[in-house]
Amino acid sequence: MNFILFGPPGAGKGTQAKMLIDKFNIVQISTGNMLRDEVHSESELGKSAKSIMDRGDLVSDNIIIAMINKRIQMSDCNNGFILDGFPRTLNQAIELDGLLEDLNIKIDNVIQIEVDENLLLERINKRASENESIRNDDNSSILKNRIKVYKKDTVPVIDYYRNLKKLNTINGMQSIQKVSQDILNIL
Ligand code: AMP
């Protein structure tokens, strides 16, 4: 089983990805987590990505595609994967199609977790206050930029999958359990 999971910052994507990983014994491929690892290890890639991430802007497509290309071919992906936070631009989605075709891999489901913008701000503020500085980009002014970037660059990607009739939309303003159940019902 291979999935793509969409949702704006604070939609609960991480939580639902964990549920799917356990349920289907697959791996999560989070470009955000991969980039944060690069930042922590102070690699060249991490150094160049840090300021972009701290602003809530997007890292260049070339870097992201190269990361995904390498990751998706690792043996732990054989049983399936969840793409979390990728593709984030139309160009990334098109590059992904080519990559998957070359590797003869199919995406089984594209899931969008939809959440109202005000609720997102509320959730992120809560996350920031409960867990101090766990993420540099978890504060409301940067979050606003991340939501703006999501609308500008990522909503067209969602439309792309909708037009291909691959998209399933879930109401993310319900309890975690209900969101999980709705996702499982679709699958
Ligand atoms: P996330 O944890 O998915 O919210 O990602 C954190 C940050 O990493 C984003 O705000 C971007 O700066 C960067 N990032 C993660 N995934 C991508 C992607 N697919 N394309 C470009 N930038 C990304």
Textual characterization of the structure:
It is a single chain. 58% of the residues lie in helices and 13% in strands. It has 187 residues and is α/β, with parallel strands linked by helices. The chain has one domain: P-loop containing nucleotide triphosphate hydrolases (Rossmann fold), CATH 3.40.50.300. The N and C termini lie close together (9 Å). It has a 5-stranded parallel sheet, sandwiched between helices. It binds adenosine monophosphate (AMP). Adenosine monophosphate binds at residues 9, 31-32, 35, 52-53, 56-59, 64, 85-86, 88, 92, 137, 146. Adenosine monophosphate (AMP) binds next to helix 2 and helix 3.
Summarize the structure.
This protein is α/β, with parallel strands linked by helices.
**CATH architecture identity:** 3-Layer(aba) Sandwich
Mean pLDDT: 92
- Show unreliable segments: none
Oligomer: single chain
Radius of gyration: 16 Å
**CATH homology superfamily name:** P-loop containing nucleotide triphosphate hydrolases
Q: Give the SSE order as H and E letters.
A: EHEHHHEHEHHEH
Q: Bin the strand percentage.
A: 5-15%
Bound ions, cofactors and other small molecules, one mention each? adenosine monophosphate
Determine the number of helices (DSSP H or I, runs of at least 4 residues): 8
Largest sheet descriptor = 5 strands, parallel
| Share of helix, binned | 55-70%
Distance between the termini: 9 Å
Number of strands: 5
Return the CATH topology: Rossmann fold
Assign the CATH class.
Alpha Beta
Domain count: the total is: 1
Task: Briefly note the structural class of the backbone.
Answer: alpha/beta
Q: For the largest sheet, list the strands in their spatial order.
A: 2-3-1-4-5
